Amino acid sequence: MARFLPVLEHEREENNYLRRIKRRMREENDPFNLRDDRFMELFRFNKATMRELIELLEPHLILGARVHKTSKQHRILATIRFFASGSYQRCVGQDCFVNLSQSQISLAITEVAAAIENRLGDFIAFPNPEEYAAIKTTFMERYNVPGVIGFVDGTHIAITKPTLNIEHQYLNRKGFHSKNVQIVCGPNNKIFAINAAHGGATHDAFIWRQSNIARILEQRFTGGDRTSWLLGDSGYPLQPYVITPVRNPADGTPEHRFNIAHRRARSCVERCIGVLKARFRCLIQERVLKYAPVKAGSIINACAILHNFMVARNVPLPPEHEILEHMDDPGDNDDDDLVPEQPPNEARMINVALETRARLIRQHFN
């Protein structure tokens, strides 16, 4: 046994040497010394907004523990670099501007994502009725569809294969494991709500019915609001506050014209998803979040919060070709060909919903 001690001692010395080299490289290669365009390319943030983000998050990170010898700033930068690049942790850790071990990167992502959710979660909020008028005006001017306060859609975020006992919940109809993430958005790529709690096998309609936003809109409808709704594709249930397309209308009819306007308006949420994924490439299918579903959900939530943080501060958008590349294919929605079942307690609302949509078509698309 003793003959192995020199080898172990040599390995310890080598590891200590590498740690010292990485620490010195981090100190000497401050990413804030980069050109502005290079900094944006690496982190998707401009320098001013990144400094503000660091200032907001640092008080909520651990200080002094052995595993956190790395500075708070470097943990934040390493996490944002991972979100932005979608590269595996080892690649991020070897980046000369980050230089952390894979274990340090993993710890940093967990800690920083939780801090973003806890500290900045208020950046995602569904609008109050007092805010509806301005939103409706914006969408009416853009798409000529009245009453619209937002759009709802789902997008699949690829994750690594979960454990066997829950794998079936995450295998989607396209054959890969994912989270089916529901996004509600408003004007200017702003996310109003996100739900990353469900696996890729879950139908859009089921996720919608379990969401807080569905309950909020139902309460507001019951309270008397009859002229405000989200637009959703045919994977969602038609409700008085969720207006979906008419199935198979004849060409040239008011219903067909309504569907064209409806589809054009829904490009708003597809673009929002494209911007989100272009900013944070860890969310694109080719990258795959190599984490258990709960941690993957935390990362998805953190990216959405950061996206809204950037929207609020007018951080420049990614290049247009990247946004277009990561927009979901509008003709490739898993749930579009599935007619969502109407639960018994909703059946009484279907006539109200049908009349709401018919009145909308009659008044604006004849």
Automatic annotation (TrEMBL):
Coiled-coil blocks: none
Biased composition (Acidic residues): 330-339
Location relative to the cell: Nucleus
Region listing for Disordered, in residue ranges: 322-346
Essential cofactor(s): a divalent metal cation
Domain DDE Tnp4: 152-308
Entry keyword set: Hydrolase, Metal-binding, Nuclease, Nucleus
GO cellular component: nucleus
Molecular functions per Gene Ontology: hydrolase activity; metal ion binding; nuclease activity
Pfam family, one: DDE_Tnp_4
UniProt superkingdom: Eukaryota
Family classification: Belongs to the HARBI1 family.
Protein name in the entry: DDE Tnp4 domain-containing protein
Organism this protein belongs to: Zophobas morio
